[in-house]
Amino acid sequence: MKKIRIIGCGWLGERIASSLSGKYDIAATTTTENKVKDLNSKGIHAVLASFPDYQLAEPYNEWSEIKNADVLIITIPVNEKSCCVSSLYNRIQNLSTFIGDFKGQMFLMSSTGVYPDLPKEFTEEDIPLEKVSGERMLRNRYPQLNILRLGGLMGDNRLLKNYNVGNLDHAVNHIHYADISAIITQMIEKKTGAKLYNVTAPIHPAKSQVINAQKNIPDEEVFEVKGKKVLSSKLVSELDYVFQYPDPRTFHL
């Protein structure tokens, strides 16, 4: 049984862990004692760990669970929106010390937020990883790193109708967590390495259309959907992947 380690078992990390448990041996990090107990009760060996954006007086020891691991999944944010470049460097240094010289398959959950808010379709070539500080720093340290730029995380209790949103005629770039887990599983099985993929549902309705669908309101108005669309066509082509939830208007069903 392959050993999979997850750094950051929050909303997404826990759902990835749940989908992989049974098929793989899972261990994870989280930031609270209560979450450690909760994960352990579900059969996921959890430890307490956080990765601050300042230099630690005493660096972390290497995670004991990493030494014989086959796959590492990182879900903690490593982007400039969460901290400045110097702070980001410290966070990644702390993370790298914890990981050590890991040689197995690796995944970083990045974000489609790296693309500017412009009314066009974006592919990975528009913003290469060399232009994204966190992605570049980690890929330089771990050349085998797969980077998944995730759209807005949706599914279960995360529905657009529950949020106060503007620009209702703008397209959504959403992804259901079940597809994230399925894509990771497929990449694990194919032993995929050093890839950069956008991960968004291939259909991009307007925010108002998604909200109407979730409220069971007929969507009679026909209009041009505005804003940016982040395309996952490279992932679909290279992995021959078929989305379980291609249309954000059905995420709640």
Summed up:
With 253 residues, the protein is an alpha/beta fold.
Polypeptide structure, described:
The strands form 3 sheets. A 7-stranded parallel sheet has the order 3-2-1-4-5-7-10, sandwiched between helices. The protein has 253 residues and is α/β, with parallel strands linked by helices. It has helices spanning 11-20, 33-41, 85-99, 133-141, 177-190, 207-214, 233-239, and strands at 3-7, 25-30, 45-48, 71-74, 105-111, 121-122, 145-150, 152-154, 174-176, 196-199, 229-230. The mean pLDDT is 94. The protein has one domain: NAD(P)-binding Rossmann-like Domain (Rossmann fold), CATH 3.40.50.
Query: In DSSP terms, counting alpha (H) and pi (I) runs of 4 or more, how many helices?
Result: 7
Overall number of strands: 11
- Please identify, by name, the CATH architecture: 3-Layer(aba) Sandwich
| CATH class membership | Alpha Beta
Instruction: Specify the CATH homologous superfamily.
Output: NAD(P)-binding Rossmann-like Domain
Distance between the termini: 33 Å
C-alpha Rg (nearest Å): 19 Å
Major sheet attributes: 7 strands, parallel
Q: Rough shape? A: globular
Are there runs of 5+ residues with pLDDT below 50, and where? none
Order of helices and strands: EHEHEEHEEHEEEHEHEH
* CATH-assigned fold name: Rossmann fold
Would you tell me the structural class of the helices and strands?
alpha/beta
Mean pLDDT: 94
Instruction: Record the strand order, biggest sheet.
Output: 3-2-1-4-5-7-10
In what range is the share of β-strand residues? 15-25%
For the record, the count of structural domains works out to 1
Portion of residues in helices? 25-40%
InterPro entries: NAD(P)-bd_dom_sf, RCK_N
Protein name: RCK N-terminal domain-containing protein
Pfam families: TrkA_N (PF02254)
Domain RCK N-terminal: 6-91
